Amino acid sequence: MAAVQDGLYLLRHRGRLIEYWGGSQAGGLYDSLTSAASVFLLGQLRMSSGLPLYLNFGDCHFGFDVIVLDEIRWGSFQAGVVGKAWMLLDDCLSMDKVRVAYMHLVSSFFDVCAGIAQGRKASVFNFNTAVKSLHDTIALKSTGSHLTYPDGRVVSLSMLTRCALQAAQRTTIQLLLRW
């Protein structure tokens, strides 16, 4: 049932969500050798100019497990998902129930208040919608640069100042406090 709901949701709102969070957050595979060489060259250029270099590599390995569901709801609303479609999204996010088993003890079922089910069609879209505020804060305070590959993929290389790192840290703390 979840796959059907995700499919219907994406059929109508995929373009709107991608437009909201922008192509740089679309995810996907990238050429790691080219990216590593670019970071190396960027570091050499800044060091030879006497400028500091702060690189921020965000690893969202556990991001799907701890993302706040209200951030997904709010981001989707800002992207223009309203009315019945928003209620469908809310239903999809609210339907996950789990229970914990430890040895012979088993808890009763309870609602999951954070995290996105991995492997669903809309999971990546929902995650990117939720973390857009963090991306915007870093972009606002950064003098970043990016690489654009011939096929249109973009890899961001942020040359962050201390102010940008502090802003990103504050935004991360705010996201955690909402949870």
Order of helices and strands: HHHHHEEEEHHEEH
Q: Percent range for helical residues?
A: 40-55%
Structural category is: mainly alpha
Question: Biggest sheet: strands, sense, closure?
Answer: 2 strands, antiparallel
Uncertain segments are none
What Rg, in angstroms, do the CA atoms define? 19 Å
Distance between the termini: 27 Å
Count of alpha/pi helices: 8
Give the overall shape: extended
Would you give an account of this structure?
There is one protein chain. The protein has 8 helices and 6 strands. The protein has a two-stranded antiparallel sheet with strand order 1-4. The mean pLDDT is 74. The protein is extended. The protein is mainly α and 179 residues long. The protein has one domain.
Helix and strand arrangement:
Layout lengths: L1 H20 L10 H17 L14 H4 L2 H11 L4 H11 L2 E2 L2 E2 L2 E2 L3 E2 L11 H8 L1 H10 L3 E4 L5 E4 L4 H17 L1
Antiparallel strand pairs: 1-4, 2-3, 5-6
Spell out the key features of this protein.
single chain, 179 residues, mainly alpha, two-stranded antiparallel ribbon, 8 helices
